[in-house]
Design a protein that fits this description.
Radius of gyration: 26 Å
Largest sheet: none
Shape: elongated
Oligomer: single chain
Helix content: over 70%
Order of helices and strands: HHH
Distance between the termini: 10 Å
Strand content: under 5%
Structural class: mainly alpha
Number of helices: 3
Number of strands: 0
């Protein structure tokens, strides 16, 4: 019978607490970002409306201005999200947190080994 050794790394309570704090901080950051974006958009639209009411810019120009600024905001937000994602991935890697791909690979190997063990038991 073939012997299979599987190394399982223990996760301490301290590691688990640190991960939990990281996830909670990330969640709060995301919620704050969403709120800030919504507030900025409301303020921008309000400013454009006031400028139109005062006759300082045409309504069509105000709509274009809002569209252009919101497009720039989307671009900058995407860049910031990419940076945050990259930094979180680096942090998780330093903490030795396995990726989804790592877990899927291990699961496939375990499944293959289980089949071999079952075949050996039958034979």
């Amino acid at each position: 019978m073939a012997k299979v050794k599987v190394k399982v790394e223990e996760i301490s309570d301290e590691d688990e607490m640190e991960r939990s704090r990281l996830l909670e901080a990330s969640r709060k950051l995301m919620l704050a970002s969403i709120g800030a974006v919504a507030l900025a958009q409301d303020e921008l639209e309000g400013l454009a409306k006031r400028l139109v009411e005062r006759g300082q810019i045409a309504e069509q120009d105000s709509k274009r201005l809002v569209r252009e600024i919101m497009e720039r905001r989307r671009h900058e937000t995407q860049k910031a999200e990419d940076q945050v994602e990259r930094r979180v991935e680096e942090l998780l890697e330093r903490m030795n947190v396995p990726t989804k791909s790592d877990i899927e690979t291990l699961s496939a190997k375990i499944e293959a080994l289980s089949k071999k063990v079952d075949e050996l038991k039958k034979g």
